[in-house]
Amino acid sequence: QVKLQQSGAELVKPGASVKLSCKTSGYTFSTSYMSWFKQIPGQSIEWIGMIYAGDGGTGYNQKFKGKATLTVDTSSSTAYMDLSSLTTEDSAVYFCATSFDYWGQGVMVTVSS
Amino acid sequence: DVVLTQTPSILSATIGQSVSISCRSSQSLLDSDGNTYLYWFLQRPGQSPQRLIYLVSNLGSGVPNRFSGSGSGTDFTLKISGVEAEDLGVYYCMQATHAPWTFGGGTKLELK
């Protein structure tokens, strides 16, 4: 069956960067889209952007341009999201999802000195 | 950005009761391709969102048929015909017609 397994929780210092992973199985990754979302606990969800694994083409929410960079590795069926210049406002749970039907379990990123 | 306004923000229900959630959009969600990209999700505590409804009224795979979606243009409704205990959590509408995709503020369904 389809599985999206995200990397573990991260504790990072302000100004640092972090790379989150989303390893997939059970479907054809190389011809699919992957989206990423942000959710601050207790709040609604924001769409960060999406990437097409076939050619690496991306689309971003303008709010996250310069903050998030999406990439894929088709050899390992894994999607990645780099978050840069982290501030406390980036502390949140981040989800990957394909076709809205399948979601990763989410990863908590905490930005703190 | 498109703003989705969900009402109510909190919904108290008893088991077996039928309830509805409204999602109102600041712009029409009818796309030029003829589709309306309006979705409904349920997020149970501590879990990832689960897609319930896609394209306004289509039931997702494995979703019980007590869930139904309706609406058009800017006004949409999710109905649960007979709430069950497993339905408790936060419901979100989401639109993917206009970039950036946006979510409503959520409706928390709790037991009365």
Summarize the structure.
The complex is a heterodimer of chains A (113) and B (112). Chain A is mainly β.
Folded structure, characterized:
The complex is a heterodimer of chains A (113) and B (112). Chain A is mainly β and 113 residues long. Helix content of chain A is 0%, strand content 52%. In chain A, a hairpin with a 5-residue loop joins β4 (33-39) and β5. The mean pLDDT of chain A is 97. Chain B is an all-beta fold and 112 residues long. Chain B contains no helices and eleven strands. Chain B has strands spanning 4-7, 10-13, 18-25, 38-43, 50-54, 58-59, 67-72, 75-81, 89-95, 102-103, 107-111. In chain B, the strands form two sheets. In chain B, strands 2, 4, 5, 6, 9, 10 and 11 form a seven-stranded mixed sheet that branches. Chain A binds chain B through residues 44-47, 59, 61-63, 95, 97, 100-101, 103-106, and chain B through 39, 41, 48-51, 54, 60-61, 92, 94, 99-106.
SS content category of chain A: mainly beta
On the 0 to 100 scale, the average pLDDT of chain A is 97
Radius of gyration of chain A: 13 Å
The fraction of residues in strands of chain A falls at over 45%
Tally of alpha and pi helices of chain A: 0
What is the percent of helical residues of chain B?
under 10%
Main sheet properties of chain A: 7 strands, mixed
Segments of chain A where pLDDT lies below 50 for 5+ residues?
none
Distance between the termini of chain B: 35 Å
What is Rg of chain B? 13 Å
Q: SSE string of chain A, helix = H, strand = E?
A: EEEEEEEEEEE
Strand content of chain B: over 45%
